[in-house]
Amino acid sequence: MPVPLIRSTAPLGRCSDAPTERRAANGGAVGRRQEWMMGGTTPEAPRRDAQGTRRMLLEAASALFAERGYERATVRDIAERAGVNQALLFRYFGSKKALFGEVVSHDGQEQLHTTPPRELFETALRGMLGHGDRTREDRALATLLRSVGSGDEIGTAVRDMGDDYARVLASLSSAEDRGLRADLALSWMLGIGLMRVVVGKESLAEADPDEVCALVTGALATLLEDLPVTRFGDPHTTHSADLAR
Predict the structure, then answer these.
(1) Which end of the chain is more exposed for a tag (fewer CB within 10 A), N or C?
(2) CB–CB of 213/125 below 8 Å?
């Protein structure tokens, strides 16, 4: 006796819809991953990771450039301190020189933009005299000092940053030769930093930063009349113009 055929009432192709949808969804996810790996659209989480990696490289480079200078701070050491593969340094910055330029620009400009002009000289001087951990901004001039003579591009970055500091210091004087006065003040500060940071002069290395700042700012009273003068052992500061009277 023939077995009767049972016809399905479901629409044709319904049974294969779920597997097809799963395959499409999986294919889309794979496609998105492949697109991200090929440098296309980046998911939100990897984008945050990239920003974090870039920041860690900048912080590591800032510290090592300040400690060793441009030449002695190697790409491998920077990546190792940041805890990342050194290939990522080239991926995010292109070259060691470009990384140095960004470090100098960020650290120096950050100090210039966040420090009131009347406090810049002492803040920068303390950054070179300070002991222990310092902020990235406080290391700006130490980075420059340790990297002088490392090539034309590096020398240009050093000169540009020095010019920026000198322009701010010039605003502390109303004299016609305020540009010269600012250059003299900056030269003295950088000379002190050179002896402290690069040469490692023992008397400066062991000196109390408060005493050094008091002596230096007091002597500069005749150059920059609006420069605040710190008296050693006195919590108050004196106006340079008052000392000059």
Answers:
(1) N
(2) yes
Instruction: Answer yes or no: are the C-beta atoms of 173 and 224 closer than 8 Å.
Output: yes
Within a domain: 168: yes
How many domains does the chain fold into?
1
Q: What domain range includes position 172? A: 96-244
Cα 97–chain centre separation:
14
Q: Per the domain annotation, does 78 fall within a domain?
A: no
Around 2, how many Cα atoms within 13 Å sit in the side-chain half-sphere? 3
- pLDDT per residue over 189-213, tens digit each? 888 888 877 777 778 778 888 888 8
**Any idea what the CATH number is for the domain that residue 142 is in?**
1.10.357
- Tracing tokens 């940041």 back to the chain, one arrives at 82
Q: In sequence order, which residues have a C-beta less than 8 Å from that of residue 123 and are 6 or more positions away?
A: 111, 115, 138
Nearest to 165 by CA among 117, 102, 201, 126: 117
